[in-house]
Design brief:
Length: 289
């Protein structure tokens, strides 16, 4: 890229860079029914997903999470994203939102997910994912959107495993993963629907640190987010956006086209069939318990 466009981008980013509040907090405030926010006296907020049994991303949770992140980023100095559940960070998109859907609801669902990704991927305050449990598909996307990722080992897994369910990760999922682990690793992982264990995820850069338990995960993530929050905010955020802006632009300039493409793609019989089979398998498994 030529120097002049880069300089224009830098100038625009500087104008929009974050201006973090210097206020200090010690509050606990539920953002909504499925999300809680606790901000400590140093201004670092912990945003916790709490939608049992697995934090599946339906329209309601997606919108609550987007609101929580947007509101918190205007008051806190940093955000730690985590889960209140014992063994799941986030199990990804709610399949029932995509199986035999109503067109209007499907479009709202996908547009809401776009907005969540944009909000988190471009967040003006430092973000860290404390991955305390399994994190497939959309859960992996949320983690990769954060500036730093800590994961509990050794039994949990993370990855974009959409092909295993007969569906395809959209281009902005793919772009986020390429920016995280590189072209070749992403190509293989997406085709295979690979779920990486923590050691594997660490080796390819999908996570930055592996720890033994939830407490260490939260503490390690908090430490890095706190360190990042002490960097001059404009310089830090502009540096981040120099890396991420082209990826964001690829979706923000084509949001409606992406919604229309997704709605058409997901409703194809060849895509609906494996989702139906998956849901039937879940029902059968539930009856056995």
């Amino acid at each position: 890229m030529a120097l002049a466009p880069n300089m224009r981008l830098l100038g625009n980013l500087c104008k929009n860079a974050c201006k973090v509040s210097s206020a200090r907090f010690s509050v606990s405030s539920p953002a909504a029914g499925n999300v809680s926010v606790v901000t400590d006296d140093k201004g670092i907020a912990t945003v916790s997903m709490d939608k049992g049994p697995v934090n599946s991303l339906n329209t309601e949770l997606i919108q609550e999470l987007t609101s929580a992140i947007a509101t918190t980023s205007n008051s806190a100095k940093g955000i730690v994203l985590t889960s209140s559940l014992p063994s799941v960070f986030c199990a990804g998109l709610e399949i029932t939102e995509m199986y035999q859907p109503e067109q209007a609801k499907l479009e709202v669902f996908w547009g809401s997910l776009q907005d969540l990704w944009i909000e988190l991927y471009s967040c003006k305050v430092p973000t860290g994912a404390a991955i305390i449990g399994h994190s497939p598909a959309g859960g992996c996307l949320l983690a990769m959107c954060c500036d730093y990722r800590t994961m509990v080992g050794p039994k949990f897994t993370i990855g974009l495993n959409e092909t295993q369910l007969g569906i395809v990760a959209p281009f902005w999922f793919k772009d986020t993963m390429v920016n995280t682990i590189g072209q070749r690793q992403t190509e293989l992982a997406l085709m295979l629907g690979t779920l990486f264990n923590p050691k594997q995820a660490l080796s390819i850069g999908m996570v930055d640190q592996v720890v033994d338990n939830r407490e260490e995960c939260l503490a390690a993530t908090y430490k890095i987010v706190s360190q990042l929050s002490k960097i001059p905010s404009e310089a830090r955020h502009v540096s981040k956006m120099l890396m991420r802006q082209p990826t964001l632009d690829s979706l923000t300039s084509n949001k409606q086209e992406d919604i229309e493409y997704f709605a058409k793609f997901i409703q194809q019989p060849i895509i609906q069939k494996p989702m139906g089979m998956y849901l039937e398998a879940l029902k059968a498994k539930s009856k056995k318990k």
